[in-house]
Predict the structure.
Amino acid sequence: MSGTVHLRAGKSKLGGFAILLFGLAAVAIFALAFVLVFAALAAGVVLIGGALALFGFRRATGRLATTEELAARHGVTPRDIERLIEQQQITPNVVINGRPMYDPRDLKDVGRLLRVASGPVIDAELLRPTGTQSLDEQLLLRSGGITTGPVDVANPSAVSESARDLPESAAD
């Protein structure tokens, strides 16, 4: 197929309809850009807000502990911790995977928990010497002066002869 194409030479003017079309296209492009920028800002605010909320939640739950962890920290049984929680009516800060988590600062009295003795108390065992050595009464401290010799147990106020021989400065 063959044909000729004629080009018009000279100044061509756009018609009113073309100007209207270009104007509408420009407005649509600016509106689209505004919507995209607004959507990006809104998404950024939502993502940053969510990240800050999760960071705060993680920070708050980082110091929380279960009753088993609190018991291990303080050297008591988990039942003792649970009893203290019931007595003070402490509610868990958060429950994660069905495990209640408590703030250790809420359990102020955990250090004062009294533990039950392991066996019956025998008076003879309460006050006894720390070692198996027999007590030598000559080594016991006595009030009333310096004694360097053997002490008369029957008469503790008597001073041995070697203590009388000490100079006055040594006796003070």
